[in-house]
Amino acid sequence: IRSTHLSGLFTDLGILAGQALRGLPTDARRWKLCAYIIGGFLSGAVAGAVCFRAFGYGVLWIPALVTGFAGGWILFRGRGAGPGKSGVVLPEK
């Protein structure tokens, strides 16, 4: 399922709708996934517009801090690293 472009999701919905209209089985999980991603995109767009109107460009600190924290977490904690293990991989000398 394409999730990088919203237009791809609407293409998927069109394909699913066409299959359903022809009487072919469709995957309920794909319908839900498309709806969740599109709903998340639209609600994020509305929330971003409302917050920008209220706080101006300062609201961009929110995604910047969330992204920075997530990047730092992955860098220092690592993906799936156990307790005491660092996620940082250093090159061998």
Short description:
The protein has 93 residues and is mainly α. The protein has helices at 6-21, 28-55, 61-77.
Radius of gyration, rounded? 20 Å
Q: Show unreliable segments.
A: none
Mean residue pLDDT: 83
Biggest sheet details: none
Provide a count of the helices: 3
User: Approximately how much beta-strand content do the residues carry?
Assistant: under 5%
What is the terminal-to-terminal distance? 42 Å
Derived structural class:
mainly alpha
Could you estimate the helical fraction of the residues in percent? 55-70%
The counted number of beta strands is 0
Order of helices and strands: HHH
Shape: flat
Structure description:
- The protein has helices at 6-21, 28-55, 61-77.
- It is 66% helix and 0% strand.
- The chain is mostly helical and 93 residues long.
- The longest helix is centred in the middle third of the chain and has 28 residues, at 28-55.
- The chain contains 3 helices and no strands.
Please describe the topology of this protein.
Layout: H1 6-21, H2 28-55, H3 61-77
Helix pairs in contact: 1-2
Features:
93 residues, 3 helices, flat
